[in-house]
Amino acid sequence: MDLSYYCTTSQFKYAVLAVTTTASYLILLGSAGKVPGVIVFGDSSVDAGNNNQISTVLKSNFRPYGRDFFGGRPTGRFSNGRIPPDFISEALGLRPFVPAYLDPQFNISDFAAGVCFASAGTGFDNATSNVLNVIPLWQELEYYKEYQKKLVAYAGEQKAKDIINESLYIISVGTNDFLENYYTLPRTRSKYKSIVQFQDFLIGMAEKFVRELHGLGARKMSLTGLPPMGCLPLERARNYVNGNGDGCFDGYNVVALHFNQKLNGLAEKMNGELEGIRVVFSNPYDVFMDIVKKPSQFGFDVASVACCATGVFEMGYLCDQMNPFTCSDASKYVFWDSFHPTQKTSSIVVDYMMKHSLHEFL
Predict the structure, then answer these.
(1) pLDDT value at position 322?
(2) Among 19, 40, 278, 36, which residue's Cα sits nearest to residue 167?
(3) Residues 6+ away with beta carbon under 8 Å from 274
(4) CB 92 within 8 A of CB 35
(5) Which of 169, 244, 335, 360 could pair covalently with 306 via S-S, beta carbons 3.0-4.6 A apart?
(6) Terminal-to-terminal C-alpha distance of the chain
(7) pTM reported for the whole predicted model
(8) Phi, psi of 147, deg, nearest 5
């Protein structure tokens, strides 16, 4: 495996050590602490590069994406650098990044310490993944089943069982179901007569997913809530006339708040019904809103537009490194592109979640 794919600087040695030894230590010495790995399902908020390997226009494996990642190389993460699972993995004493399952640079010896199945553009609803031809959530689960078989062959049945049972499962999905499905596709709005009906449908799909994961051996899970969707630069631009004084569109933010309440209720329900499980609700909404409303308190200069290009509508292929408007220092911006936070924002959000929900797994 060519690890220069990720690193060319002094961080190269760190990442080489992390990737080549973590899995080996797990096999030789047992689990590293209480959580031996981080296993990720979801959308672009947590996709480490799986979309690179599928036929879709929703990709980010080119500059300026990844310019602040190890070695400055784009990996398919929708960020200038690392994304939340990377920071969570590091906070748990594991590697500083979680590799994508479909990335040919990695194999099962790497995935034993954590793996990402997420696909940018997907959702709980299969119709969401169809919009941009990305990996549906059910297929992410099929990849996970395949991973389990490889893990048993690599580590042995007992070690594989320990990793499967004790790893932290991150589920971060839902934003696309609303912004790219319900509010975009007339057929979805005609099928679900109210946003509440659609929310309840999504919660039902989330419950089904959690139950399936539990049946496959997962015991430690984090259900990640939605951010203030109405404050994303793209949605600010789309709904400019409906925005409030701070530029955010309150309608979408209210939907996010209500959906988060339902996700929190689902976590409590699963803890009461499924044996041996511990599900936490990780809520990024409040800290994200604080960052957007008071950016200077977190060391940011700009919260209304993104770093890439004009910062208003660019994402994916529209995020062109040659655009003269792209900012030189992403750490001054809350958002990297019109839909996704910068590495710095993700770090702050993860720090908040580690203190308020994920600390249970330390």
Answers:
(1) 85
(2) 36
(3) 210, 211, 214
(4) yes
(5) 335
(6) 30
(7) 0.92
(8) -60, -45
- Residue 343, token pair as written in the block: 């590495």
C-alpha–C-alpha distance, residues 195 and 203, integer Å: 12
The amino acid present at 178, given as its one-letter code, is F
Strands 38-42 and 114-116: what pairing?
A: parallel
Residue 317 near residue 56 (C-beta atoms within 8 A) = no
Tell me the one-letter amino acid at 89.
S
All domains of the chain in start order, with CATH: 33-284 (3.40.50)
Residue with tokens 């602040």: 68
**Structural element, H or E, at residue 170:** strand 168-172
Taking only the tens place, the pLDDT of each residue in 19-41 is 444 444 443 334 445 899 999 99
Q: What is the DSSP letter of 179?
A: I
Pairing of strands 38-42, 278-282: unpaired
User: Residue 120: in which H helix or E strand, if any?
Assistant: none
Q: For residues 46 and 349, is the Cβ–Cβ distance under 8 A?
A: no
Q: pLDDT digits over 285-309, tens only?
A: 999 999 999 999 999 999 999 999 9
Tell me: pLDDT of 261 over 60. Answer: yes
Per the CB < 8 A criterion, the answer to whether 57 and 319 are in contact is: no
Q: pLDDT tens digit string along 173-193?
A: 999 999 999 999 999 999 998
Which residues are designated catalytic?
44, 337, 340
